[in-house]
Amino acid sequence: MNIPNKSQIFQLFRSCIRYSDQLKLSDKKLVSRRIKEGTKFSLQEKVALAEKYQNMAQKFTMLVQSLERLVYHTVYRSKHTFDHSKVPILLPEDLEEEFTRGSGPGGQAVNKTNNAVILRHKPSGLIVKCHQTRSLAKNRELAREILIQKLDQLINGEDSIEAQKTRILERKSKENTRRSEKLTELKEKWKKREGIE
Amino acid sequence: DVHIFYRNSSGTSGKKVAELIQNWTNKFQKNKVPEAEDSIKHILSSILGLKNATHLEYVKHQILTPDEYQMLLVKADLRLKRIPVQYIIGEWEFCGLTLKMRHSPSVFIPRPETEDLVFIVSDIIVELMSCNKRDKVYNPSCFEVGCGSGAISLALLSKHEELRCTAIDANPAAVSLARLNSEILGLTDKVSFSIAKLEEDGIVGLNFLNSTKYEDHLALDGGPDGTRVIKQILRHAPKWLREGSYIVLEIDPRQTKTIKLISEECASYVGEVDVRKDCFGVERFVILRCK
């Protein structure tokens, strides 16, 4: 807690005077008198003012921060937020991978083009086969993503990400049909009013 | 569902994709071509401009144009001569990147095991960079011996923004192919490829190597050169690398014993040689740390 020094008090005084210049409804003389009174005070009062000043500064900072958060959420938030809290995590010990190997002493000398991956999840019995790309590493990555999606649907059912997406899409399409139906309704009414074209 | 059948009077009968796959698979199998079905699928999908063989499912009723059919005949013939599919279609994927492949003169085709090498080196880079944050010293850099098509360096660069790579290969065709790939991927300002060869006392052809010290690691594809290059690297590389650098080699499991012996002989390495298996369960990689 800092006790304001003379220059700070003087700055406060000046900013109050500037503020009072803007006022249209107050008695300016009264205001300036009150300001002058307020800016000469004892040490205790100075301390009290510093505390008050600091509290106000804190409150102001907090207000700015909460405003920023509000703006951030409004600008950067995606229109639909999904609940990822229940999405399952894959544990390496639960997984079993299988790929086709080249034949040969080290296996590496032989060139092979088949990079399909079969990924098994032992606890649930789910099996994913992926050969979407020509890169083995990429197929392994994709297989895991697909497995998580399937596991999510199996375990969480309605709460899975896919189910959430379907609900949002259904809602959107319902809204769209409602809007287009309303639009045709309005068009019909207008046609009737204007006479059939 | 409407199927349009037509016979071209010049003799090339337009055939459906599905039929062609079946016919050529049989023909390849009769000729004992390895991976018969995959071969024709990769060739066809490449001719049709598809991203992958699995997309052929969606076009199985499509009929090839005469030009496409001609190209198929040429490429299938190459495959009958056992030319690798990657050379026939001129490209391949590695760690999610599409790289051009060159057949004559031939440049080594990246293997799926090598993708595991990229993961190992990637982890080391992450580790070194997290140490870096405290000391704020160097940006990670990487030196590759035997870059081939540039696969390893380019894959690493695509995963790590701050990484800079230097790579060499004794084969000029490899260096030019690697440069082409780096241009296609937009990574030219982060990597330099040079024609250079590993000799007993150092690297011939690389002038600046003596003045700069590299921090990280050497990535080597054991490939056709075998143990000779590995021995040279183990004996000489620590001189060119900073303290605490890593050397990561892709090897054949039969070489692990020799590697352990040489590294002990040199006494330039910290601790034990770390041997790692690839995704097929074969001992494929060794990691050494320089003093």
UniProtKB/TrEMBL annotation, chain A:
Disordered, as annotated region: 172-197
PANTHER family, per the entry: MITOCHONDRIAL TRANSLATION RELEASE FACTOR IN RESCUE, PROBABLE PEPTIDE CHAIN RELEASE FACTOR C12ORF65
Q: Which protein family is named in the record?
A: Belongs to the prokaryotic/mitochondrial release factor family.
Its annotated compartments are:
Mitochondrion
**Keywords, ordered alphabetically:** Mitochondrion, Transit peptide
Is Ion transport there in the keyword field? no
GO MF terms listed in the record are: translation release factor activity
Chief location category: mitochondrion
Residue span, Prokaryotic-type class I peptide chain release factors domain: 92-183
Q: Which domain of life is it from?
A: Eukaryota
What do the Gene Ontology cellular component annotations say? mitochondrion
Q: What is this protein called?
A: Prokaryotic-type class I peptide chain release factors domain-containing protein
Q: Which InterPro entries match?
A: Mito_Transl_Release_Factor, Pep_chain_release_fac_I, Pep_chain_release_fac_I_sf
TrEMBL record, chain B:
**What does the record give under GO molecular function?**
methyltransferase activity
Q: What is a single Pfam family found in this protein's UniProt entry?
A: PrmC_N
SUPFAM superfamilies in the cross-refs:
S-adenosyl-L-methionine-dependent methyltransferases
Query: Which InterPro entries does the protein's record reference?
Result: Methyltranfer_dom (IPR025714), N5-glutamine_MTase (IPR050320), PrmC_N (IPR040758), SAM-dependent_MTases_sf (IPR029063)
According to the entry, every stretch annotated as the Release factor glutamine methyltransferase N-terminal domain falls at 19-90
- Domain Methyltransferase: start-end pairs: 144-269
Official protein name in the record: HemK methyltransferase family member 1
Its source organism is Daphnia galeata
